[in-house]
Amino acid sequence: MKIALGQINVKQGQPTENLAAMREMIVQAKAEKADLIVFPEMALSGYCLQDKWLDQDWCAYLESLNDELLALSQGIGILYGNLGTRPIGQAQRGRDGRPVRYNAAYFCADGQWVKRENSSLDGMYIKHLNPDYRVFDDSRYFLSGMEIAMRNQTPVEEGLRPFLFEKDGKTWRIGVEICEDLWSEDYALDVTDAYLKQDVDLIVNLSCSPWTLNKERSRDKRVRQHAASAQGAFVPLVYVNACGMQNNGKNVMVFDGDSTIYDEQGERQLSLNDQFEPECRIVGLHEREVLTRQPETKLMRALVSAIREFDKQMFSPKMKWIVGLSGGLDSSITSALLVYALGAQRVVGYNMASRYNSLTTKNNAKALAERLGILIREGSIEKIVDATVDTLQDYGYPQAEGLALENIQARLRGHLLSSFASMEGGVIVNNGNKVEAALGYCTLYGDAIGALSPIADCTKVQLFDLAKQINAAFGREIIPANLLPEMDGDRLIWEFPPSAELKDDQRDPMKWFYHDWLINQLTEYPGGRVEEIMDDYLQGRLQTSEIGRWLRYYGLDEPQAFVQDLEWVLRTMQGAVFKRIQFPPLILISRGAFGSDVREAQMCPETTKRYRLLREQILALPKPC
């Protein structure tokens, strides 16, 4: 069988554009004599539509587009994802009382819906495993195949019958899955295994799976696990994923494509590009190719793709991106990503210096702008700082100093950026990183503003690596070496240590490398690992792990110092929730991004009994020699 893998850039909420992209690939597949073309999950509408799924007219419109694809199926099989709203037996309405909705795959060929073995659901498969964790809210909007079976008091297996695809005198038994159906470890139902027990010829998985760091390794591992469990009975698995960008309001998700055919051993035999780009390729079911991947550069490619697609889908092509260009690492990286994604003519940098800004960062900002070819506007905020301080005194307040003066500077910069954006008809980019967001090391209405936060899911340590990726991509030094640390034996050397530069001799309070690791541990799904971290410390496992060197470097191998630092991080993170819920949408690259991934409430949670016991035991440990 010749299969066309239709890896399209699914534009959320744009079914006409998506249908046009599908039509173009169908024409190509027919011209190249493909027997079947496969598209991703929710290929017509996009997956991340939030409460737009509650719009009944919209849902009816999406379902009506099935007729157009049915007409296009003359001479070829078409397998694609779309919404379903047709009542099925007793499944007339969803949990919310509205007409039923489900996430479906549709299969048509030669102008007909493809039959299924012993099933009344010809031409359609309903997703059985609905994810309800991290950014996923499937059960808020859709009934699963399992729930529909329960409503109708029928065996779940009836919804898992293979499609019978007739081609050239052969009947192909094809099991169809949708995304999460492959990831069945934590569910009572194993969809893949159910198909293998029915002697299918192949399994096709339609996905709209957001990329996160090392996601491809996790998927490959999962397929190998299925193959191992099958004990020689595994069949080829065709995985077709979306590419591009979709967002849910708080998180901007990228989709890398990486559509793949896995062989009977669960190993990759052929893959499309994982560059977040569309591709249609017609391949033989057992065709192989040498796979080349560059995972070390994928983070940069993900961020660039997200920026480019977010800009294309949200804004006009001439809109300027406004950057507060301090000359520090974060703003330098953000500027470089914007230029790489959109071109230098779309980016304007603003250096808004005060008496506390060093000559090093001011020179860095100017040199970076020259290397990137962007316009930089330079000025001082001293006059408006003084005017604000004077105005506060007019209201009866004393001379502003300390944190109040620091926040005045940050908010005035935010005010200026907003004014610059208005003058340019542009939007502001946010420069914050994940550690700053976690610890609230930012000022509301100051440096916490923006239309998009490209690096707010990246720790500072990840930015050190990203800076090197950027320099390699540009083929020259864009991010200056004086912003990156070096290790000299056990010493961490900074030519210019990270600083907000809001007062004299200021340094960021973070313990870099250790706090980066700790915040990832506390936020990565399923999160809440503080007791496990404490237990690892108590048992000595943390000290002998890779992070142990940073415990020793910062003196945290001393039990009291460890507890004090941990509690400072926990207290500071919880106290900063009110800032994060007002933060701009951020590009998701981890399994623990703030926003709709890590969902937070403003509260003061008490500690657990286990926490208090572990705390006592750690403080009773002897000091290190």
Number of helices: 21
> Alpha-carbon distance between the termini?
68 Å
Q: How many separate structural domains?
A: 2
The share of residues in extended strands comes to: 15-25%
What is the CATH domain class of the largest domain? Answer: Alpha Beta
Low-confidence stretches: none
Would you give the CATH topology of the largest domain? Rossmann fold
Envelope shape: globular
Assign a percent range to the helix content: 25-40%
Counted beta strands: 22
**Would you identify the CATH architecture of the largest domain?**
3-Layer(aba) Sandwich
Mean pLDDT: 96
- Which class best fits the helix and strand makeup? alpha/beta
Major sheet details: 7 strands, mixed
CATH superfamily of the largest domain: HUPs
Q: Rounded to an integer, what's the Rg over CA atoms?
A: 27 Å
Quick structural summary:
This protein is an alpha/beta fold. The chain is 37% helix and 17% strand. Strands 1, 2, 3, 4, 5, 6 and 15 form a seven-stranded mixed β-sheet that branches. It has a six-stranded mixed β-sheet with strand order 7-8-9-10-13-14. Strands 18-17-16-19 form a four-stranded parallel β-sheet, with helices on both faces.
Write a structural description:
The protein has about 625 residues and is of the alpha/beta class. It folds into two domains: about 1-290, Nitrilase/N-carbamoyl-D-aminoacid amidohydrolase; about 305-620, Rossmann fold, CATH 3.40.50. It has 21 helices and 22 strands. The strands form five sheets. Strands 1, 2, 3, 4, 5, 6 and 15 form a seven-stranded mixed beta sheet that branches. A six-stranded mixed beta sheet has the order 7-8-9-10-13-14. Helix 9 crosses helix 14 (about 460-475). The N and C termini lie far apart (about 70 Å). The model has no long low-confidence stretch (mean pLDDT about 95). It is an enzyme of class 6 (ligase). InterPro entries: C-N_Hydrolase (IPR003010), C-N_Hydrolase_sf (IPR036526), Gln-dep_NAD_synthase (IPR014445), NAD/GMP_synthase (IPR022310), NAD_synthase (IPR003694), Rossmann-like_a/b/a_fold (IPR014729). One of its GO terms (molecular function) is ATP binding.
